Amino acid sequence: MAGKEVILSEEGLIKIVDEIEQPGGGGGGDGDGGGACTTKLHNGAFSDFKSKIRQLKENEIASSSLSVKLECAEVPQRLRSDVKDAEVYYEPQVMSFGPYHHGKPHLQDGETLKLKLAATYFLENHGSEDEMYEKISRNIEVLRICYNPTSTEKYTNEELSVMLLMDGCALLQYILCVCLGDHAEYGIRYQDLSRIHRDALLLENQLPYQLLQDLMPQYFSDARKVIFLEFFGMTENSFLKELFFGIEEEGSFLRKMKSYCCRFLFRLLPLSIIEIINLNPNQKLESIENSMPCRHILDLYRQNFLGVERSCPLTHSKSTATVKRGLGSDGDVKNQVMASFRNVKELMAAGIRFEPSPTRYLRDISFSSSGITACLRLPPITIDSSTETLFLNLIAYEMSSNVPHDFISYLRFLDSLIDNADDVKELQSAGILQNNLDTHEQVADFFNTVSSNLESNFHAYKDVRVKIRKHMKNYYNSRPKIWMTQCLDTYFDSPWTIIAWIGAALALFFTAVQTYFAAFRR
């Protein structure tokens, strides 16, 4: 190929290969038998190379096409194989939504409950089954490609439309049921509420969000921000319960009367009144439907769990110029940002105290330093028996889609802080972590294993990691700072030691004054 300019691109490479394969196209000049021989010798290997490139391109096209279609994906096989008893964490226990687990024998009672919820939804919202079915059937091809084809190919368009109609209406009615607290009317026991709530947030149990929007009546669609936040448990108080029931006891006559009338009243409330009554000044409802389109309920939960993007630091952050100067001073950017740092106990020994962030958004992590002491603010979080299932499904969602691995990055960040039970105890004392499990060791083991083999987002919490690393470097390179920090930890670590120190200082001062006047009395 002497005299040719090789362009390192797929199209250019294939074009050159095609020219070489053409008769007489491989020589450098007329009658150049050596060039023809060389072309023949390399023609087979080069043809294989070309076929591999074309195969790679076809695979990439098929993979990208599949990722676009699967808005409601399955748990990646890699995660299933890594998790012991994976069906406990990834498969529904009471109700199935969508085709992945539809028709399984242990979910038959859930099918009966779904039918009852859907029937109530039709009745209370004055919606015609025919109208709702028509909406779904018109878009059934779009809805079908949201799922893995192997799970939907056994259903006709009509069967899939009926399935999605009943599942969507049942899910929306259940959400209202939870928010209004009238689950007893459907025979749902308290112990089943958490199990159904768990099922609604499983990755393989999701319904396309567009389907839910098509099935929502106007009042539900207008107030969906408030309703979904309450269903997710992300509001401090139950607004709908207080609005309709007040403080009446369960089973009272007044409560039953309000239960009968509440949904009719709810449909008449404009969105402005609902939001004005319910909104907490610290609540950021705009994050529930940000610029990134919502795919399903689990995606909606993740968006609200993470909060606003960290492209602009939320609070307590210095300028990005400071961060960039810190990066450049220590060499390689990636090594500095991603290098693991000390656990909670060792960070506290370096003068870093821990405080809860002003919001519960997982992205609201910030770090500020005053030279000798510093403060790392983390969002408060509760760990209980349902946390592992929820976290594993959020991990599976990020691994099976093209969204940034921001939740995985948060888990990796906490994993770098928590090594053992002592670290968990310190975070609980600071009001950051609420442990509802049996022991602190369980929480430490959970964070050390749940994301151990996963890759995080390089840019997530980059500014915080760089600032912590810079503070630690400055601390260990300065003996006066070490002595000052040790002094503060020893004598000023609590209000009682401060009071005792001040009392001792005053006593010493007054003793010196008394001695002075006794020695120099005129």
Question: Could you please describe the fold and organization of this structure?
Answer:
The protein has 522 residues and is mostly helical. The chain is 60% helix and 4% strand. The chain has helices at 10-21, 33-69, 77-82, 86-90, 108-124, 129-138, 140-144, 149-152, 157-180, 190-200, 209-215, 218-222, 224-231, 239-245, 253-268, 271-278, 297-306, 320-329, 333-338, 344-349, 387-400, 406-417, 421-429, 440-449, 462-476, 479-491, 495-519; strands at 352-356, 366-369, 374-378, 381-383, 433-435. The strands form 2 sheets. A 3-stranded mixed beta sheet has the order 1-3-2. The protein is globular. The termini are far apart.
User: Biggest sheet, strands in spatial order?
Assistant: 1-3-2
Q: Over the alpha carbons, how many angstroms does the gyration radius reach?
A: 31 Å
Sheet-strand content, in percent, reads under 5%
Task: Please tell me the overall pLDDT.
Answer: 75
Low-confidence stretches: 1-14, 23-31, 244-250, 252-261, 263-291, 312-338
By DSSP (H or I, 4+ residues per run), the number of helices equals 27
- Find the count of extended strands (DSSP E, 2+ residues): 5
Structural class estimated from helices and strands: mainly alpha
Helical fraction equals 55-70%
Sheet having the most strands: 3 strands, mixed
Query: So what's the overall shape?
Result: globular
Distance between the termini: 112 Å
